[in-house]
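Review form for a predicted model. The reviewer records the input and the model, then writes brief findings.
Reviewer: anonymous (R2)
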Amino acid sequence: MRETLNLKILFIIVFLFSCNQGFSQIGGDNSYEFLNLTYSPRIAAMGGNFLAVKDNDINMTLKNPSLITPNMNNDISFSFTDFYTDINYGYAMYSRTYEKIGSFVGSIQYVDYGSFTYTDPSGNSYGDFKASDYAFNLGWGRQLDSCFSIGSNLKFIYSDLESYNSFGIAVDVAATYHNSDKNLTVSFLARNIGRQLKAYNSGNIEPLPFELQLGLSKKLLHMPFRYSILINHIEKWDLSYEDPNDPNNIIDPFTGEKQSKSDLEKFGDNLLRHIVIGGEFSITKNFNVRIGYNYQRRNELKVYDKVSTVGFSWGLGIKISKFKINYSRARYHLVGSPNYLSVTANLSDFIPKKH
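Model under review:
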C-alpha cells in the first residue's frame, strides 16, 4: 500500500516535470518523457528541443543525428541542467569518424529526480528512495552529397523509479538539407520510434513519445544573425488546451454556457502551438548571443495575473582557448528559470603536434 502510494506520487512528479517542457497536452501520454527534455544550452536558448543548424556543433546531435559530421572527430562535450528543486539532468558525449562507414557520436544522458521520503498516511517516515532515468545513445551520420545528409540515433533506455524499473529501445531518424551558398539548413526528424521491452508493471506496456519535427534556419547574408523556425508534433494537429482558470473564458449570462472561440481564433492558436522561433547573433567569431520564444510554453505555464517573461529564453556562447562554453536560461514559470551549461572541446587540441 505504502509503495503503491509513493509510486503514484512519483509518477505525478515525473508527469509535471515533462509538462514543464511545453508539451503538457502530450507529455503525460507516454513513458520515458525525459527523452523530450532540452539538454543543450544552445537549443534551450533558442526556445526548442532541437535545431536545424549545421556548423559542426556536437551538442546538436543528441536531438538531430543528421547534423553529425567528420569535423566533430574527437570532440567531447558535457552538459548539466540545474532544474527545479533538486532535479538535475545532463549528458556526456564523444564523437569519432571512420572514413568508410561514417561518423559516430556516443552519449549517455541522465535525469536525477533527487531523493524522496517514504511516509504513511499518518506522516511516519520509513527512509528515503531515489528515482532516475538513463539513455545510452549511439548516433551515426553520413553526408550523401554536397547538400544532403542523414543520421540515426539508437537509444537503450533504462528507468529506475524506487523499486520499479523499465527497459526500452528507440530510434531517431533524421535528414538534413544544407545549402552553404544560401546559408540555409532544413531538417526533418522522426523521433523515439520504439517500444518498452520491460514495463514498470508487468504486462502494462506503454507507448514512447513519438514525434515528427521540422526545422529551418538561415543566416542572413549581410548581418551576423541567424534565425530559426521549428515545427513540433507534425503528426498531431490539435495541441489546444482549455484552461478552466483562464479569466478570458466568457460565460453567457443567460445560458451559463461558455462562449467558444471562433474557428479562426482556434486555428491561429493551434498553429502557433506548433511553432518555436529563435535567433542567434554572432557578436564576434568567438561570442554569440541567443534568444527564443515558445508560444505553447507561455500559454500553458503562465500565471494570468502576472505573465512575466514565461516562454522566453536566452543564452550565451563563448570560446575560451580550447573550450567552447554555452550557458542559457529558459523561463518556464514564475517560480524560476532552469540553468543550462555545456563545455565542449576537441581532444586532439590537447595532443602535441609533431613537426
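Findings: Residues 2-350 form a domain with the Porin fold (CATH 2.40.160.40).
Further findings: The longest helix spans residues 2-19.
Recommendation: see findings above.
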